[in-house]
């Protein structure tokens, strides 16, 4: 039975990869409809791992910067599924070099950054300012990468999100993703759908809270600890 589950799961993974490939292709061919393509692919990818999605808290329409814990490569698909509006993602420049997939970034107002290049970081700030001025929400994962050993604990935050929020004076709303990484089981590999929860915490203006960066990380970890201990 486990072997059959593994085979089915691998087929689902392949279907997800095909979905992403064709979404990138469509975004390149017809960028005007990129939002429809992105949302459709995200809903399909999320359906592979979510039995149900529970949302706690409300999204602040005035918040321009969303920051959350990074749990999986499918965090993006999940957020794109639950938030109907267009979201702007900041990605490492290497992703913009992948054939076809790059169109989902370069043709859709997404922002690519080379973290080792200070000029690229300054360019990122200008682009984020442009997107937020146009009414879009930008989403960042302050960790930069996910904790592959223990997704219940966040790793050290990078200072990029802090600089973005403070230099551009963007209203921030944190969110916490629960259970998503546990959809992927190992030995043998298989996908088991989870009840996934997204908790939106109260938004705030960073310039009114000098220690917001450290305090927000602590509050988000408290939420993780509470959710996983229940």
UniProtKB/TrEMBL annotation:
- Say if the entry is tagged with keyword Lipid metabolism: yes
Pathway field:
Lipid metabolism
UniProt-listed Enzyme Commission number(s): 2.3.1.51
Q: Which UniProt keywords apply?
A: Acyltransferase, Lipid biosynthesis, Lipid metabolism, Membrane, Phospholipid biosynthesis, Phospholipid metabolism, Transferase, Transmembrane, Transmembrane helix
Q: Which GO terms describe its biological process?
A: phosphatidic acid biosynthetic process
User: Which GO molecular-function terms appear in the entry?
Assistant: 1-acylglycerol-3-phosphate O-acyltransferase activity
Cross-referenced SUPFAM superfamilies, in alphabetical order? Glycerol-3-phosphate (1)-acyltransferase
InterPro entries linked to this entry: Plipid/glycerol_acylTrfase
Q: Where is the Phospholipid/glycerol acyltransferase domain?
A: 64-180
Give the domain of life.
Bacteria
Transmembrane ranges, per UniProt, are 6-29
Q: Which Pfam families match?
A: Acyltransferase
What's the protein here called? Answer: 1-acyl-sn-glycerol-3-phosphate acyltransferase
